[in-house]
Design a protein that fits this description.
Layout (H helix, E strand, L loop, with lengths): L1 H4 L18 H25 L4 H12 L2 H6 L6 H20 L7 H20 L3 H21 L4 H33 L12 H5 L8 E2 L8 E6 L6 E8 L7 E6 L7 E5 L21 E6 L5 E9 L6 E7 L11 E8 L13 E7 L5 E8 L8 E6 L11 E7 L6 E2 L8 H17 L25 E2 L12 E2 L3 H26 L10 H20 L15 H22 L3 H26 L27
Antiparallel strand pairs: 1-14, 2-5, 2-13, 3-4, 4-8, 4-12, 5-6, 6-9, 7-8, 8-12, 9-10, 10-13, 11-12, 15-16
Helix pairs in contact: 2-3, 2-5, 3-13, 3-14, 5-6, 6-7, 6-8, 7-8, 7-12, 11-13, 12-13, 13-14
Length: about 625
């Protein structure tokens, strides 16, 4: 939405200088406002967690004086809005926790509604926001369980449950869906990412080449066939051959638009007609056809003699021979399964008809199950001839995505394609999931941007935010404030031991030096902050996708607040009088000094990098030289 407000019309791909019509200053200012908002939200959240006023100021200073949080707000990225709504959610949950004894009051409802709205917005920024939803979900389960164990009336527990279903599930989902609705309204034109979506969605976009094409598929037409199995792609071939099995030309599915996705549908041998004089003949249900690869002229082929290279129990599918050859292994029967337009007949239609291709000699079905081939198949999807005969399964269903025939008039497909918001919403989320899962690291090409989750809290591998590191180029370096990162990491790692220590003392009956109600406030705040850090950090050890240092920033926000929280606890219970203020002031001054030391790399440095002496605090930092070949 901010791109629309800034005049961006979708043609600029954010490569090279900004064109005059894009108000990039507004876009940067808009993003920076989210970063600015983190500071007051940190103060309010800590105040709601019953920290002292001076500790609230210290927590806000920690957020303000972290170099990594600051430098990310200077770029037009989604990470700052994600951080802002993560912080807003924490602030709202803390307020809700503070108002738990005023259940169903106006204040309680306000905090509950703010929590729900923040959850919807944080999930709409990036899917990492679902980790914030997990935090609130676990907190809510714990709260309801506590009510149950304290023998609160069942009717009251039910009211609390329904209120949370409304505010913490329904409202976030509606906000999430509304963001996609706005997305569809604004981004309604065809673009480079079309191929990830189903043909019916593509045809509905303005300027899409699929929007106007012949509707009824005719013989001797050029076709692009797409598998209906999510993530498989379009039927594809190329000149490379299978290294084992028949050794014939490879058949795969490929997820991007390419000339090697084009096929000619023809009648089998011995059934001919004059394709320039005779009227075009439609392809019908039950017809036996041949499919010739446009680029290599080989014909889609299957046989019993060889098994599929990866999928057990299926036959190999290849491109072999030429049209007119007397080879029955080139014959496929068209079997229409369902029609999604209002024109229902026995004819094959572009985009709206889902059909099987059954191999005539063997009876198996042309299938694509999103199984990736090894490197010899370029990681593309394996295509097999399945003997399971699951005619209605998505793996065996195909659709004509693009139909080209100069002898047949074009039809406005948008009038024939039936699409609903729910369908588009689900399809786009599935496409996003597939794209995210495809971002797997290549360890042989590990570069200066990537890092592993274990290294983040200790700031082992900071990240160069620009590729060029030459003198005269403005250089930004995503290095956090080492004092804050290392101390907050230590604080988070030692917190479970602190918890165990307090539990052991309580079991032994050692009297605790807590003021009335102070112990409950402490543990309520600590579990939110440490739980937020753990839930936003530990799941990354399970993720198989490419990881970057900025993925740690939501966890860092919780860690910085927990550090201030523990310093406040230490000052209250160990120190007395002015010494408390001295310790807090020393932490603030130390954070400020380190922030200023690394500030040139935070705000952009254009000189020779060697002029910035003593900034390399760990041997793994690539400030002066890169450890990877770019």
């Amino acid at each position: 939405m901010v791109e629309v407000l800034a005049g961006h019309n979708g043609t600029f791909e954010f490569k090279g200088p900004y064109p005059d019509y894009v108000n990039y200053k507004f876009m940067r200012q808009f993003t920076a406002m989210f970063g600015i908002g983190l500071v007051p939200l940190a103060y309010v959240a800590c105040h709601q967690l019953n920290m002292s006023r001076r500790a609230c100021v210290l927590a806000a200073c920690f957020v303000l004086l972290d170099n990594a949080l600051c430098v990310m707000s200077r770029f037009i990225l989604l990470d700052e809005s994600l951080l802002f709504f993560t912080a807003a959610t924490l602030c709202s949950v803390a307020g809700l926790q503070n108002a738990r004894h005023q259940a169903f009051s106006r204040t309680w409802w306000r905090w509950l509604l703010l929590t729900g709205a923040s959850l919807g917005l944080v999930a709409s920024c990036k899917w990492v926001g679902f980790l914030t939803i997990a935090l609130v979900g676990l907190y809510t389960i714990g709260e309801l369980f506590t009510m149950y164990t304290e023998c609160v009336a069942v009717r009251t527990v039910a009211r609390h449950f329904m209120a949370r279903v409304l505010c913490l599930i329904a409202i976030p989902f509606l906000i999430y869906a509304a963001c996609f609705k706005m997305h569809f309204m604004v981004l309604n034109r065809s673009g480079s990412g079309d191929a990830r979506m189903p043909p019916a969605f593509q045809a509905s976009l303005k300027g899409s080449p699929l929007g106007k094409q012949p509707f009824t598929v005719m013989y001797d037409s050029q076709l692009t066939l797409r598998s209906m199995h999510a993530g498989s792609g379009m039927l594809h071939s190329h000149a490379h051959r299978f290294p084992e099995g028949s050794g014939q030309q490879q058949i795969t599915c490929y997820g991007h638009k390419d000339s090697n996705n084009e096929w000619i549908i023809a009648r089998p041998r011995g059934v001919g007609f004059n394709n320039t004089a005779d009227p075009p003949v439609p392809v019908r249900h039950g017809d036996v056809v041949n499919l010739m690869h446009q680029q290599t002229k080989a014909v889609l082929h299957a046989h019993r003699a060889f098994a599929a290279p990866v999928t057990a129990g299926a036959y190999e599918v290849t491109a072999y021979g030429r049209l007119g050859w007397k080879d029955r292994n080139n014959d496929w029967r068209v079997e229409i399964v369902r029609e999604q337009s209002r024109i229902v007949n026995s004819e094959l239609h572009a985009i709206t008809t889902q059909f099987n291709l059954r191999h005539v000699p063997t009876g198996c079905l042309l299938s694509a199950e999103a199984v990736r081939l090894p490197s010899w198949g370029f990681g593309q999807t394996e295509v097999t001839c399945s003997r399971q005969n699951a005619s209605g399964a998505a793996t065996s269903l195909w659709v004509v995505e693009k139909h080209v025939n100069s002898r047949v008039p074009k039809t406005d497909m948008r009038k024939l394609v039936k699409r609903s918001f729910v369908e588009d919403f689900v399809e786009l989320n599935l496409a996003m999931a597939r794209s995210n899962n495809a971002l797997v690291p290549d360890r042989d090409k590990h570069n200066h941007l990537e890092s592993d989750a274990w290294s983040w809290p200790f700031l082992v591998y900071p990240m160069r935010l620009l590729g060029s590191w030459k003198e005269g180029d403005i250089k930004y370096y995503e290095v956090g404030n080492p004092l804050l990162w290392w101390s907050s990491a230590l604080c988070c790692l030692l917190f479970p031991l602190q918890l165990l220590f307090h539990f052991a003392r309580k079991q032994r009956g050692v009297p605790a030096q807590w003021a009335p109600g102070e112990e409950l406030h402490y543990w309520n705040g600590a579990k939110l902050l440490w739980g937020g850090w753990a839930l936003h950090y530990l799941p990354f050890f399970l993720f198989g996708r490419v990881l970057y240092l900025h993925h740690y920033l939501p966890s860092l926000y919780f860690a910085l607040l927990l550090l201030a929280f523990e310093i406040d606890y230490f000052c209250r219970h160990v120190l007395r009088g002015r010494l408390q203020n001295v310790v807090l002031a020393l932490w603030a001054v130390g954070a400020l000094a380190v922030f200023c030391w690394f500030a040139p790399l935070t705000f952009g440095y254009s000189g020779a990098i060697e002029e910035l002496k003593y900034r390399k605090w760990l041997p793994t930092w690539n400030i002066y030289e890169d450890r990877h070949v770019m």
